[in-house]
Prior knowledge:
- The structure is a homodimer.
- By secondary structure, chain A is α/β, with parallel strands linked by helices.
- Chain A has two domains: 238 residues, Aspartate Aminotransferase, domain 2; 101 residues, Aspartate Aminotransferase, domain 1 (Alpha-Beta Complex).
- In chain A, 36% of the residues lie in helices and 16% in strands.
- The first copy, chain A, has ten helices and 14 strands.
- In chain A, strand 6 and strand 7 form a beta hairpin.
- In chain A, helix 1 packs across helix 7, helix 2 packs across helix 7 and helix 3 crosses helix 4.
- Chain A is globular.
- The interface between A and B is large, with 74 and 74 residues.
Amino acid sequence: MKEKRIYNFNPGPAALPLPVLEEIRESFLNFGGSGMSVTEVSHRSAQFDEVINDAIERTKRLLKLDDKFRVLFIQGGASMQFCMIPMNFMKDGQSADYVNTGTWSTKAIKEAQIQGKTVNVVASSEDKDFSYIPKDIPFNSDAVYAHITSNNTIKGTQWASFPDTKGVPLISDMSSDIMSRAFDVNPFGFIYAGAQKNIGPAGVCMAIIREDMLEMVPDSVPSMLKYTTYSSKNSLYNTPPCFAIYTVQLVLKWLEETIGGLDKMEEINRKKADRLYSFIDSSDFYRGTAELESRSIMNITFRLPSEELEKSFVQKGLENDLGGLKGHRSVGGCRASIYNPTPPEAVETLVDFMKTFEKENG
Amino acid sequence: MKEKRIYNFNPGPAALPLPVLEEIRESFLNFGGSGMSVTEVSHRSAQFDEVINDAIERTKRLLKLDDKFRVLFIQGGASMQFCMIPMNFMKDGQSADYVNTGTWSTKAIKEAQIQGKTVNVVASSEDKDFSYIPKDIPFNSDAVYAHITSNNTIKGTQWASFPDTKGVPLISDMSSDIMSRAFDVNPFGFIYAGAQKNIGPAGVCMAIIREDMLEMVPDSVPSMLKYTTYSSKNSLYNTPPCFAIYTVQLVLKWLEETIGGLDKMEEINRKKADRLYSFIDSSDFYRGTAELESRSIMNITFRLPSEELEKSFVQKGLENDLGGLKGHRSVGGCRASIYNPTPPEAVETLVDFMKTFEKENG
């Protein structure tokens, strides 16, 4: 039982900015002078319109989206997008390119194939246990889209820059690095991100769609699975996950107003990651698992000399108020997820703990 | 701007029990001694396992479900179920029966038809503007299921008892009356309910499935749209909407431990509805819109002598701290939604206000 808040390195659901949590708590019984909780107000009220529209406007400003992009909020997480993307964008006789960089890419591919869609896996890093991001990828010029996973939470890899698909719309799962760095959105036809890592709680997925992609959506897709439904109704076709969208709004407000935007956020994130990687590289006890130039600035994956030490490291970490340091159950090892809300002090405290643990066990 | 909480007659998202909101607020920065918010804990943690399993066990006890029923939590609201039900339960060459009792039934039918499924609308109350629940329905013995909407939020009607489908699995959208009354679940193959009326916030849909229905699910359905995925993974195949499930757990705990279960809840709900209907029936100023024996105990729909008076009634209501009295935008009029969390005092206060309004405007 913890009396106080701990530093949280969970991979998702993950830490949220403390001022955001405090604002939610403060207004929880009476939101915006409505006399109701944010969980009780109508999604058709002026109060909620302000929430969702502010979240959209902040997203547009932060990512420098022009008017050809629409911002949508969809339920079901990134996993639902794995099936909605081929359902909306790929017709019979068409094919799409996928780059396989780990568990989430593999699932995205599988959900297209379940529907009988034609998928070309144009590159994969499976040969080296997904420890790197492939280069010089032979994208097909007739693909309807090219799908990548911008950051791989489990293996700790990230695309340092995005590939040139020669005009084929790029689609990316950005669940674990959206809003963590500045990038040029123009090559992208569609971007999606489960909120529960960088921008909010579990229960909502942000999607950014370029309007020409909306023309690809077939009529035979059910309403709740069609991007056109969300786009034409401002994500209010049915009752949206109001609380989750409200939290996203507050996180984006914090990102714009307290942090100062994506350039600042990226600078902070790179410093946090550099601090951890430099320490790991300087140690003979800890060993990073991702190839140098493919390293993620969000999920720092590393191993210790033995599985027993790793188990002890995770346990001792928690005893020292450092939570969530266990690697994904499918790969083992250790992992520190340091998304936007993780403050630099958390990383400093972690490095101190790692030093002490090494001394005691090295 | 309201300084205090108001009485909330919203149709959904709707009022939540005050003790539930207070408990969420209390634990919001440090949930269950985890040192994290409930929005920050891992969905694979022991803490969250306890939340979801407790919500499931309480549902089973409250509804007297035996082991052949599974309780699932799915995103996308009841609207997502409109498409998932035919996708999971109806193969080519098969057909299903639907009873059309209003907007939500109509949408459920439409989402089956979009997918090219064969739907038999075996009864409809459209002839009288959906003001009643049909009787003596000619269900087809070869239908794979028979679909009804147990309570119709917009028109204020409700099935007083469920129809005999002669062994064909009954499926019901119970979004607006789940957990409001005791009933025999045995004829049901599948029950679903968007949480945001009786049992929680928007962002999660409770589904109850009889295990034989799981055998009907085809392999060609994407993972996130298959009931078997949710059933085999205890609704934890991917990150679930943790906060919404947590709130549902607390509402069910309140229902079991504070209210005392469904028989007690039903008694309270019937008294609240009787109070309002008796007053409306005793007045020449207000007029109920649903036929007597089809009246909902959840959504009390009524009209005033003119649309102008209705507009003024809704406005004055809000000024008197009574929110959400406007009828659905598609039908106009007035509506008081009095789900489980609405206390009897709220109904008394509303009746007093209605009397005063009648005196001043009658």
